Amino acid sequence: MPIKIPDQLPATNILRRENIFVMTETRAVSQNIRPLKVLLLNLMPKKIETETQFMRLLSNSPLQVDVELLRIDNRPSKNTPTEHLDTFYRQFEAVRGRNFDGLIVTGAPLGLVQFEDVIYWEHLQDVMNWAHQHVTSTLYICWAAQAGLKLLYDLPKKTRKEKLSGVYRHQVNRELSKHPLLRGFDDSFLAPHSRYADFSPHYLDEHTDLDILATSNEAGTYLAATKDKRNVFVTGHPEYDAHTLHDEYHRDLEEGMEPVIPINYYPDDDPSQPPYVSWRSHGHLLFANWLNYCVYQQTPFDLDTFSASNFTLDE
What we know:
The protein is α/β, with parallel strands linked by helices. The chain has a single domain, classed as Rossmann fold (3-Layer(aba) Sandwich). The chain is built from nine helices and twelve strands. Strands 1, 2, 3, 4, 5, 6, 7, 8, 9, 10, 11 and 12 form a twelve-stranded mixed beta sheet that branches. The longest helix has 17 residues. It starts with a strand and ends in a 19-residue tail after the last helix. The mean pLDDT is about 90. Belongs to the MetA family. It is found in: Cytoplasm.
């Protein structure tokens, strides 16, 4: 089944060229199907690139997904045309009174910024608190995972001395291998990271009640979830395109930051060679599992009847 997105969204033609089933709003209105309503809060600067990446992953499911785009505030963007934002993105006030099956909060280039110094921190807290009463399951990506842990568990910001950049091998937690989010996973898998945030498995295990589902010796915790599956934390970037880490590496070079070459990304660690993708299948499986087991299997058929009190912990 397809994702349903606006007819003129740039991602529509990009995904069609990749042979991905995209249903425009025009066609969707003729079908008597209850699609999943998923809200994408896009905090990344290059919004068109990021929205396309996430819609690619949301498309790989037998479920029909109706994606709506949300912006954190109305400040002008340096990397996204104002016309695009005004046409395709909603302000939070426009959705505050509605319920959604899923919410995805993207990463943001704020790894070295303290939470209280983030210009939209209070607004983001407002959205996350709202989600508890209006969203079946929320997926926090990279920096958003750190922000979510601060909100839900009041964990202080922990920062690595050097940026973690590259594609790292992870292992599933064998004691939780039957968790729905891990269905179909290999015992080990690859996923990209690009962050300063530090997610120590020992620290999270000691200070939260999260199910820690996958970790890496180098990258720390990768995948974790609350017992009721209503909050899922992914510390890496399974949505990244083949060249995203490459572009970030060269951006940092141009800014004089002397970045480390992304690990396990270029053939022979040679930045002059085209990078290769080794994480795509994992990314699609992760998102398909989240949509199915954390959203579709949990959400009410009638979203108007949604209530946070209806969710109980798995036994």
